[in-house]
Please model this.
Amino acid sequence: MVDDSTIKEVRDRFRAPGKVVVLTGAGVSAESGVPTFRGKEGLWHNYKAEDLATPEAFLRDPALVWQWYAWRRDLIRAVVPNPAHYTLAAMERLLDDFTLITQNVDGLHAIAGSRNILELHGNIWRTRCTLCGRVYEDRERDLSELPYCEYGSCDGLLRPDIVWFGESLNETVINQAYATSQDADTFLVVGTSSVVQPAASLAGVAKQSGAYIIEINIDPTPLTGIVDAILTGPAGKVLPKLVMTK
Ligand code: OAD
Model:
């Protein structure tokens, strides 16, 4: 439940000068129709991450992994951003110092108009060569057959440019995420179960540096105990209340 006094307190925080950092997870795209990962309806309830989202799975059966990512691309291609994405894009335009960190790979924040985005887990619309490392922005690539690198004579197998279980995050991106979290005056966590590291530790880093922490989620998470304000409810309903109204 979202009470008016918490809404007012949080709104005042955003209006005060200072650095605002937002961390988003799959819950932000749930109202667009993109399935989350955990919970009864989550992808990891019906599919095994170790068969689909690990480097070992890709070595074992790249066609199966690509089939799954092609299915997810089709699903995401058919959806549009929701008010949560649009509100975060509006916040970036309205606030002087605003950074968006996302665990989502769906690209919906950018479609909604966010520009300053740190994508911790990669992007489903990019592929990367397993041999030469070349990255392709290839939203329209035909994935009915295994994709291969077209650079010179490389011909290496392409993989989704996504961070899989057991892999390290891009060092530059995670270092920026830590640095910006450490500098945050206000840190908002939206729609993440806060169980996947290192993303889950960013709010703690901000808290230790004295930031005010806000969580928006439909359910409690391991983070809920340490936050300063809890706004319980769907992100697409709660977020617009924070900035779009008087
Ligand atoms: P999860 O599926 O673990 O968590 C989604 C969170 O969103 C849960 O806490 C839900 O309660 C919440 N939620 C669902 N609908 C919501 C809504 N409408 N409004 C607000 N909150 C809502 O997703 P993540 O925390 O993002 O990794 O998962 C982290 C990572 O684990 C993902 O990036 C993915 C996955 O394995 C990779 O793909 C590399």
User: Anything to note?
Assistant: The first helix runs from residue 4 to 15. The pocket of 2'-O-acetyl adenosine-5-diphosphoribose is lined by residues 25-27, 30-31, 36-38, 42, 103, 105, 121, 162-163, 191-193, 196, 216-219, 221, 234-235 (CB under 6 Å). The mean pLDDT is 95.
